[in-house]
Amino acid sequence: MKKDKIIYWTTTGIVCAVMLFSAINFSFNRPLSPAGESFAHLGLPNYFKIELTVAKILGVLALLIPNIPTKAKEFGCFGFAITLVSASIAHFSTGDGIQFIIDPLLFLGALIVSYWYFHKIKSNQNTLLHSSELRSGR
């Protein structure tokens, strides 16, 4: 169980760090990385930065705050998955190098592992709770 939690929090932390960095980076006039300048390069409107920044911050909060309902965490994961797949497709469509296409997919892999272990931990907790209720006669 401890190994599962370590894997979950490590992968969740990686995904959240990347999403938070990109959300903050979007709001700078002079971004820290080329990703912040990619909106114009990808043909996306400038106002989309605001929408994506808000969505990423909400998603990070949903994944990191412990007592958020499961459905909200799943919604955050789904939103991040769409964002990462869309980023990969956008970079592919504009002819960017392979590293720009694969990079979002690597983080998608970390997100999938995080999601998997979230449900594995939840399942184990529910099993433990159910077995303790049976032993206590409830």
Which secondary-structure class do the elements indicate? mainly alpha
N-C termini distance:
25 Å
Q: Classify the helix fraction into a percent range.
A: over 70%
Q: Are there runs of 5+ residues with pLDDT below 50, and where?
A: none
Count of beta strands: 0
Q: Explain this structure to me?
A:
- There is one protein chain.
- With 138 residues, the chain is mainly α.
- The chain has one domain (2-129).
- The protein is 80% helix and 0% strand.
- It is built from 5 helices and no strands.
- It has helices spanning 2-26, 38-42, 48-64, 70-93, 98-136.
- The longest helix is centred in the last third of the chain and has 39 residues, at 98-136.
- The radius of gyration is 18 Å and the shape is elongated.
What are the defining features of this structure?
138 residues
Quick structural summary:
This protein has about 140 residues and is mostly helical. Helices cover about 80% and strands about 0% of the residues.
Architecture blueprint of SSEs:
Layout: H1 2-26, H2 38-42, H3 48-64, H4 70-93, H5 98-136
